[in-house]
Amino acid sequence: MHPLFTDVYNAILQALLPIRCVVCKQESPKALCAACLSLLSPVQAQCCAVCHTPNLAGLTHATCTHQHMLDQVLSLYDYKNVRVSELIIAGKYKFIPDAFSEVAPGLSRLVTQYTDLDNTQTLITPLPLHRYRQRWRGFNQAAILARRMATDLKVPYAEVLLRHRQTKTQKDLQKADRLTNVANCFSLATQADVHKKTVLLVDDVTTSGSTLSEAAKILKQHGTSQVIGITLARD
Ligand SMILES: [Zn+2]
Ligand SMILES: [Zn+2]
């Protein structure tokens, strides 16, 4: 379609179906209004991926790490803040992918603040959904975040992981069941080149870190030198 027609089409669509902020439900030029964006609560502190104790840059303690482990995890918002959970739930279950585009720049700033990346050896990848869930939702929220961050951070975006088994939502499970739920649910995509790379692994919410850890294990088994988990929120 000609860009002029696209603009006219969008203007008509907006007049007929005004956009509402996913959090406060007020009419807004964006899927998340500026006021609600400013009121999302950041996490109190970054934490070690293993012992979950606060740690300045979310680095995995030397005494906590083991083979094929995440090196660092950075989370932006506190999921217990009602605006944060509302944003994520509405974005995912009311099918509003634009809500995630609004918060991605904050994640890019978090990465810039807490990491020192060699852009030539780094790639960014989303945690994949199983293809059935992806088809049902029509988008992967982690991919929306990761694509936008790739542009901001000037690192290549690549979908290097596959989820070949459907898993239950981690939040609904007891801690002990979370590891078994995600065990061996990922594999490396054919032709994915992760050897000696730093991989930024993006997801929307982390609870125990089990899903990120499982994905990191696959990457490390294929020679990735560093895996940094990046999540929009931590529960
Ligand atoms: Zn709002
Ligand atoms: Zn630790």
Folded structure, characterized:
With 235 residues, the chain is of the alpha/beta class. The protein has two domains: 1-39, no CATH class; 40-234, Rossmann fold. Helices cover 37% and strands 15% of the residues. It has eight helices and six strands; from the N terminus they run ααβααβααβαββαβ. The protein has helices spanning 3-16, 34-38, 82-93, 98-114, 131-137, 141-153, 175-182, 210-221, and strands spanning 72-78, 122-126, 161-163, 186-188, 198-206, 226-234. A four-stranded parallel β-sheet has the order 1-6-5-2. Helix 4 (98-114) crosses helix 6 (141-153). It starts with a helix and ends with a strand. The relative contact order is 0.16. The model has no long low-confidence stretch (mean pLDDT 92). The structure holds zinc ion (2 copies). One zinc ion binds at residues 21, 23-24, 26, 28, 33, 35-36.
Low-confidence stretches: none
The ligands bound in this entry are: zinc ion
Give the proportion of residues in helices.
Answer: 25-40%
The chain-level mean pLDDT equals: 92
- What is the helix/strand order? HHEHHEHHEHEEHE
